[in-house]
Every structure is written in C-alpha cells, then in structure tokens.
Amino acid sequence: MQCVLASCSVGGEGGFAAQKAVYGRKLVTPPSSHAMAYLCLVEKGCFTETTPHGTTVRRAGGVHFHPPHELNDGAIGEEDLYVISVGIPATRYRDLKLSAEPFQEINSGILPLLIRQIEAHLDSSTKHAQSVIEAKVAGLFDEFSKTFRGQAPREPDWLEEAKRLLERGVSVSDVASRCEIHPASFARSFRRWTHCKPNEYAKLYMLTRARKMLHEDNCKLGEVALEAGFCDQSHFTREFRKHFGAPPSKYRLQRLR
Q: How far is residue 51's CA from residue 66's CA, in Å, rounded to a whole number?
C-alpha cells in the first residue's frame, strides 16, 4: 500500500516536484526508476533499499539521494514508512555537474531541515506557498551540490542548541545571549545556515507541531493554539491559514474524513 499524503509541482514541465507519502509496513517494492533526481528524507520508519551501489538500511532522519534513472527496490520494515521526496528534472541535475560517486546518507545539518521546511508548505495551494516551495527547493539542491562536492563549510557549534531553544519558545535575544553571540550577528548567521530568520523558524516549528495535533480528534482548537505558543486563537488561525492554506477547523475536518 502506498498513499500520497501531500504533493506539489512547481514550474510545470522542467520544474520541481515534492511529495509526502506513506508506505505500508512489510511492503516490498519492485525494481523501478524515475526520470527526475530525488532527495528523500525518511520521516518515520525504516526500509532496506537496493541500488546498483549495494544494499543499505534507510532509517528515520536520514536523507538519501537518487540520481535520474537509477534502478532501486525496497523492503519496508515492521512499521509504516513515511518519506518526503523532493525532485528536480534530469536536465537541472546535469547542470549541477556532480560526479557519479554514490552520495553518503546525511543525518544532520541543513538538508533535513530544508526538506522539512518544504514539507510544511505542501498542504497549501496558495501562490505564496508555491513560491516558498520553489525557493526552498532551489536552495535545497544548491546546498546538496555543495555537500556532495565536500565544499560545504562546517556549521557553527551553537546551531543545534539554538534550534532546540527556539523550539522550546525561548526568545531570539535570549537564545543569542545563551550562544554568546551579538543578536544581530546571531540572526544573520542563523538565516545563512537555515534559510529562514530565527523567529520564522520558531513559528514554523510550532505551527507544524499544531498541524500534527490536529490529526487527533480529542484536542480542542484552543488547546492546540496554546500548545503552539499562541495566546490569541484568531492570530493562530490567521497564521495557520497563511502557512497551510486552510483554517485549523477546516484542516482537521479534511484530515479526519
């Protein structure tokens, strides 16, 4: 069983594509290939994948890459597999001029973060969301090409701690202080490494958390808003609609049908 939960195509023929899909546990996928080049993030579950380069176990949190027309098959593990895939046409992949060496799986850094930022906008069909996705996909493959070539500079030691603090609701100024960095320098450096401002990162994290809570029918909307860090439910509703294309109440009804 395969079910596409959300998808988006940007730019028509020759453009980008992104989707989030779930594969049923213990599913065995037959050998197949795709015309596009894909970066894939395993969000939940694991599977064993076989390519011309060998057999590898793909686990949650890891980003792996499939060049165009690469034959692969897989065997899903004991639980359902959730995968976010982002693709570019073969012509754009060739423009990156990468070697034919296999890409080692990435489990941290900018690539998983950028893919999650793209996934956060897949449910929305607004022009704003489409433009955000297009910019994020372009940035994703730019960072990927640097990583593949070994040219990407090492991210600062404080970055992961800063993200954890922002996710806990700590103010940007306090995060900068704890990281012992001037607030202006912190904001510039954080944006460089994550492709978004610190307050935008925190907001997107909380809204994504709220979206997951809406998949449960026993959570009241007011409670979801508070858990997402919004004291004003109307403000929460506006921000949720802006990012996901529908107010929380409508989004929940669509998901629970």
A: 9
Report if residue 122 sits inside a domain.
no
Structure tokens, 161: 């701690």
Domain of residue 56, CATH code:
2.60.120.10
Structural domain of 42: 2-106
CA distance 3 to 110: 27
Residue 21, H or E segment: strand 16-23
Question: For the chain, how long is the longest CA-to-CA vector?
Answer: 54
Residue of 216, 18, 255 lying closest to 117 (CA atoms): 18
In the 3-class helix/strand/coil scheme, how is 98-131 assigned residue by residue? Answer: CCCCCCCCECCCHHHHHHHHHHCCCCCCCHHHHH
Tens digit of each residue's pLDDT (9 = 90 or more) over 73-120: 888 988 999 999 999 888 888 888 776 666 777 777 788 888 988 888
Answer yes or no: is 223 within a domain.
no
Distances (CA, A) of 83 to 3, 69, 252: 11, 19, 22
Assigned token pair, 203: 């907001």
Say if pTM beats, i.e. exceeds, 0.70.
no
Per the structure, the count of domains in the chain is 1
With respect to residue 96, please indicate whether it lies within any of the assigned structural domains. Answer: yes
